[in-house]
Every structure is written in C-alpha cells, then in structure tokens.
Amino acid sequence: MKIINIKKSWKLPFKTLVVVMFLVSLSSCSEEFVEEPIDTSGVTDAAIFANRNNVQTFVNGILSNYKGQYRTVDVGGLYAMYFARAVKGNDIIQAVSWYRFDYGHENREPAFRRTNFTWDFNYENVNFANTLISGVENSDLLSEGDKKEFIAKGKFIRGFHLFELLLEFCPNYNNNRDLVRIPIYTAPTSLETATGNPPLPMSEVYNLVIQDLEDAVADLPDTRLGKSFINKAVAQAVLTRVLAVTQDDWSKMSALARAAYGGDASAAVQSTNWGNGFGDMTDQEWLWAMFQNGSDETNFFWGHAAPMMDHLTLSYSATYFDPEFVSEFSATDSRNLFFDIYGVSDSEPWREFISTKYAFTFASDIPIIRKSEMVLFDAEAQYQLGNIPEAQRLLFALQSARDPNAVMSGNTGQALLDEILLERKKEFYGEFGPQWFDAKRYNLPMNRNNIHRISLDVPADSNLFYLKIPQDEIDLNPNYDERFNDE
C-alpha cells in the first residue's frame, strides 16, 4: 500500500498521526458532544487507548475523515467516491464540470486522481482501523466490554473499506474469484514498517471482509451517539451489500436486511425528505449519514451530490437527467422532482431536465445508507429464493410509499428482478451509483442514448467497471508490476 498519502497522514510518524487525529476530531462527526478527553496537554498513543472517551474520540476522527477535503472538489471523502459511481450510469448527465471524467468513464488510469484518491482514502482508513484494533487489544486500562465494542468498530471500518476497494479495483467477483488484485493489511503500518503486502485472490479478501463484518454485527451495540456513528444495524446493512455482490447466501442476506431496516418494510420506507431538500438525517428512514451543521461540522461546497444537483442555489449546478430515465416516474411519484428550467436546445439537448431532489445548504446532511435500500435488497433476496409474492410485497411497500397510485407488480422471472433494479435507480439517483453497482454484480451493460453529452455503451463485464492499480503502488510495492494494469 502506498505510504505517502495525498492528504498528509502517512507523512507523519505513528504517534504524531495519532495526536493529529485525536486533536482534529475533538469536535468532529457528532450531533452530540463527546466528553473532553483527560489529557489535553500532549497526547500519546498510550493516552488515547487509556479510557473509553479517548478511544471514542479517535473513532470520531476516523468517521470525520469520510467527509474530508483532499486535493480537489471531486476527490473529497466517501461522498466523492459514491458520486463518481453515480455519474457513470445512464440516468445522470454531467456537465463539463467536476466529475466529468468519471461521467465519461475516462478516470481510471494509474496516475489519475480518481485512482490515487480511491486507493489512498480507503487504505488510509484501513490503517486507522488497524491502529484502533491494535491499540485497544494492547490496552491494560480498558474494560473487557469496551475492548469488545471498539474492536468491533475497528473491524467494521476495516471490512467496510476493504469492500470499497474490492468494488473499485476488481472486476465482477463471481466471474473469477481467484483473480489477484489488492492486498490485505491487518496490522498498523508506518513509514518505518511498511514494505507493501502482496495482492491476494479476491476470495481471500472477501473472506476477511465478511468475517470482519460478521464480528462487528455480533459485538456492536444497537445504541450509538447519533446517525453519523456506527452500530449493529449499520454493520448489518453493509454486510447485506457485500452478500448482494457475493450472491452465495440469499437467506442470510434477507435476514440481515430485515434486521437493518427493522422488519416492517412499510414503516421503514416512510420518509419526509422527498420534496424537502433531502438533507435531514433525523428522518427515520436514514440509517447512516454524514452530519453537517453549516459551520464547524461542514465541508461547504464539497458534499456531493447536493452542490452538483441543486440548480436553484449558488453551487456547481452541473447535473442533469436523461429524459428516458425521467419518463420512468409517474406524475404522482414523490420522487418525480424533475423540471425543465433552462429550455432544451438542439445544441444541448442533454440540459432539459434538472432535479430538485437536493436543496443544497452547508448544513445538508449526506446519506450513506437508507432503510429503503435494505427493503429492496430483501425483495431481491426473496426473488432469488423463489418467494415471488413476498418479493412483490416488499417492492410494493416502497412503491406505494412514494406513489399513492402505485399498483403491486404482477411481474415474475427476469421481469421482476429488472423492476426491482429499476426501483433502486429511481430511489437512489445521485446517491451511490446503484446502476453501476448492480450492472457490475449482475454482468449487465450500461448503455446511453444519443441525448447524453457523452453517449457510450459500457459492455457487460467491461474493464471500465474497475480502476487500474495506482502507478505509485506499482513503483513502490515490490509485489506489483506493470502486468497488473495490462487491460
């Protein structure tokens, strides 16, 4: 793994890094205040793992990194990685602005900032997770209960980011589970200790991801400080995403999804965010999000998708929508927030539709996972298990919550699966790229019409579905060579 990070972290020795993370995070990632740590005059790694409050503050700093600002607007935090996926499909049309190279599927070369940011950001957080796990395990001052909880948090963070790396740098898992692409790190690394681990078969990395998340599900509490923190339900939701990719245990995927959304699909999908700016994490339907308050807890114009999609507020106003996608929404669907405010022209037909889904402010919270995603995953799992009426019922729970005139689906077979995947596109447009995620795991193409600013077809299982290994990793890790990027 590359040690010189684009931000600053691996330029610092371990103790200094811990101090920086500790002090920076004192006011980070919380809707509530965490008690001030005991040692404020000079923090060492021993002090950080001396009591629960200090360790929690370290975790806050890791989660605060998710909405960070790195070098440029399109390589910020977790939101930047998700929005880059969102613009790769055929629903969004991105103007000549930030994320335009992701929209054109041009941003995957070894020296490009998307590739380097995605690698560095995720491995940085893997290292933070390993630092957390190691520090807690070696602490003589924490209670056994606290150790169990914080090790679970560390395993969740490690599993979550290894999964994101698998998605970004590897092809479809089920086409070749033995393909070697990325390395695993399970101990803290620093400039003094890192030599670069060898890449492993995808199956070994997925096995660690699943084990980490299963351990997190087992040991994380149900309670948390707020929705920008992690708990058992968040771990269940992420593991559901993982099993949607591996596709080898649909029953377990359904059970995890139900546990994450609470079991009552009709209640879980109720939301007041649609039509109200889509920026309020207190909505019961949001499961995990990045908190912003407009002042000390905000990243201002970086928190996409809101500043990209909002054309009514001073922001980038760079995202438009394909008319064919817009036509999939009924007039009474609460998600049908598309408008023609510019007047379509022959020279720029792609500028016809904008969406008011997001009302951008510096206090707009950023969704990571919502309960509706889990309901649709449950429907998908039931379909795969052959429980067609249950799959239809779960799908209708969401459809009827968004559209009072919705009619329960009568589809079966491939048509029902297609309808579930379409509903994912309609529910999560602009959020995390459901079409990219689904096309990759189901070996589907992504085809654009001629209205798009860049009209292209991405064939099923195309190498455009994953990024190349960063050139710095090729150069610095002796276990890599140029053959890893011969595609």
Automatic annotation (TrEMBL):
UniProt keyword list: Cell outer membrane, Membrane, Signal
Name under which the protein is recorded: RagB/SusD family nutrient uptake outer membrane protein
Superkingdom as given in the UniProt entry: Bacteria
Cellular component, GO annotation: cell outer membrane
Compartments it resides in: Cell outer membrane
Signal peptide: 1-30
Record flagged with keyword Signal: yes
Domain SusD-like N-terminal: 84-242
Domain RagB/SusD: 364-480
Keyword Cytoplasm attached: no
Record lineage: Bacteria, Pseudomonadati, Bacteroidota, Flavobacteriia, Flavobacteriales
Family named by the database record: Belongs to the SusD family.
Protein source organism: Hyunsoonleella flava
